[in-house]
Amino acid sequence: xxxxxxxxxxxxxxxxxxxxxxxxxxxxxxxxxxxxxxxxxxxxxxxxxxxxxxxxxxxxxxxxxxxxxxxxxxxxxxxxxxxxxxxxxxxxxxxxxxxxxxxxxxxxxxxxxxxxxxxxxxxxxxxxxxxxxxxxxxxxxxxxxxxxxxxxxxxxxxxxxxxxxxxxxxxxxxxxxxxxxxxxxxxxxxxxxxxxxxxxxxxxxxxxxxxxxxxxxxxxxxxxxxxxxxxxxxxxxxxxxxxxxxxxxxxxxxxxxxxxxxxxxxxxxxxxxxxxxxxxxxxxxxxxxxxxxxxxxxxxxxxxxxxxxxxxxxxxxxxxxxxxxxxxxxxxxxxxxxxxxxxxxxxxxxxxxxxxxxxxxxxxxxxxxxxxxxxxxxxxxxxxxxxxxxxxxxxxxxxxxxxxxxxxxxxxxxxxxxxxxxxx
Length: 424
What we know:
The chain contains five helices and 21 strands. By secondary structure, it is of the alpha+beta class. The radius of gyration is 52 Å and the shape is elongated.
């Protein structure tokens, strides 16, 4: 084939391709029948293989973000589930709690009142031992004090003898003045020996006081327990020498332990009046913070001043004979104290988690939307927290969120799911 023949063949092929492209544009851009936007003609070209007809009713609509369905689409908005408890206002007895250390009624540093060498110690004068009131704990060497007592007794006897002699001389002087025939009173009281008699009486009184002091010093050589006590520390040993004022031992009284619990003004507002509270039989419950052991006590007194540091007033709880109980309460134990208060109306009992970190309570209104309000617990116990119900919500039961989240917003539509307190 010549070169000219090949050029004609290429030219004819190009014309065929251009004709096919024109037919494609007419069919797909202007519709069947060759007119733009015109209805499909019966004689128009058939649709291309693989094309899909549009569904009945027009093109499909996509749902907006967040699960909200378009208006009129027949779809429902997806509401998140929230766990709620149903509560109604009720009457509850308040519980007040606080922390404190169990301390002895009396904590005494026992000291020597006189000087001397330690002759003997009681076998019970050891830490952890119990001693009874009047028990001799330390015996000091007492020979010098016995000598002092004997000397004082001798001085007293001499003074009394001198007084008797002076009284007799005074009677004799008065008789001689009367026998002299002189009228009136003598110029000086010395004539009738009145000053001498007063001096003799004063000497007797001094001797008696000296004897009392000597006997007391002798008695102080026997150092005794001033009350039933627990020995905390011994500070002397046999043979040691003590001066007046030297520490001998540390003692705790055994009659009772006291726990001072600082309470806020709100706590005090839930308790009975002071006269009722401190009459001696208002119960209290003490629980060891360390091991959970429990003791019963009673309210002893209420302090009537505010602590300079905490600005709170303290309630003092007593536990009588703490070491004689089946479960002894030891001095120094750190405890949680619980005291029953007055019965209060209009309270909701809620799980502790129902109060958000911002101090808010969230509820679901009748339309299923979230609402919130600020609240402060009136008191709390092992069952939960107790909130004063708002006046506008006291007429019916309310759905309160168990665990409000930080992302919740007022007016947010939710689906409340009720749970019991046992499930929470």
